[in-house]
Amino acid sequence: MSAWSNVPMGPPDPILGVSEAFRACKNPNKVNLGVGAYRDDNNKPYVLPCVKKAEKILQNMELNKEYLPQGGMPEFCKQAAKFGFGDDAEIIKNGRLATVQSLSGSGALKLGLELIKYHYDGPKSVYVSNPTWGNHIQMTKYAYLDVKKYKYYDSKTLGLDFKGLMDDISKAPEKSVFIFHGCAHNPTGVDPSHVQWDEISALCKKKNIFPFFDLAYQGFASGDDENDAYSLRKFVKDGHLVMFAQSFAKNMGLYGERIGAIHILTESKEQCTKVLSQLKILVRSQYSSPPVSGARIVTKVLEDPVLKNDWRKEFKQMADRMKNARVALKTNLKKEGSTRNWDHITNQIGMFCFSGLDEKQVDKLVTEHHVYLTKNGRISIGGLNSKNVEYVAHCMHLVTK
Length: 401
Ligand code: PLP
Description:
This is Aspartate aminotransferase. Its EC number is 2.6.1.1. By secondary structure, the chain is α/β, with parallel strands linked by helices. Helices cover 46% and strands 13% of the residues. The chain has a seven-stranded mixed sheet, sandwiched between helices. The chain has a two-stranded parallel sheet with strand order 1-12. It has a two-stranded antiparallel sheet with strand order 5-6. Helix 6 links the parallel strand 3 and strand 4. Helix 3 crosses helix 12. Pyridoxal-5'-phosphate (PLP) binds next to helix 5.
């Protein structure tokens, strides 16, 4: 009998489990459409050229390895805020934005949820979209906050259930916290249009809803960082005090560097200072201070106009490759003779496509054809390339005809 004898086995992570099964598979045709990371057309992880250049410059500077302050690197926080909210955002200039460096987007969400748990003056529950990225639910639960779901995806139209979403906002108690995917909704790839975001913002204002934006794909979704930040910036324009979890994992390809930020818009400079002080306490009590390397890379790229321009071109290339992969998948399904309507593949945006395949069809894809994806039918577009797209379309047709 040890201290750990009664520990039950935790369930495997539904997303990471797909990659494990893929690695164990010996079939030469195997394809991994589970992984939430970009791959180039040769199915290789991609280090952005602007990042390589920034790393060279940093290496030559022979910087030290001292601790960062609890709130992270100040220049990084400033540049990250400008990228999210816009270079000329008034809220940055007037000192109302509390920004703290975080362990990528996940760490930003965690800090935000904990701030809600300890200091938010409103219901201690968090509304997440149905469906949502699984970690939203897990993190909310582990912050001892109640998870509630709002309608989002319509499985009949394979698109947005806008009416359901608006109804659920209307019915939520005043000051409820809503997590919104600012762009490139994970797992569905279905986003509200700009006009719909305008309506969502107006209703949230009327209902005094607290908007918590998870914007993990800015620039990476459409290839245009301003377009991808539309929802966040519209809410700010409309006077919401937003919270924003930011990540540089996807758009700068810095997955393992764990670099992001949590931004909290407050009413005044004085309030901002207080919120910042509490965020720093949360950091101190969990990991003391954030890592330095990713913050230096992002700061270098964002501060240098040439590197920043290169970066914009590079994330547009990634976004374009994913848009082209969607078109190729749809075209090949048609070539196979599929009579199903696959328009949703190209209507959706970002890293993921909610294919509409049911669990049985996914099971067949995995066991009979060695095409790996999550049970909910989510395809990671980053895993498609010119060499495997015909095979994937062929197998999708076989399991859906
Ligand atoms: N939010 C969403 C919706 C995501 O899809 C992801 C990554 O898959 C994240 C946040 C956070 O990612 P990271 O912690 O790697 O920045």
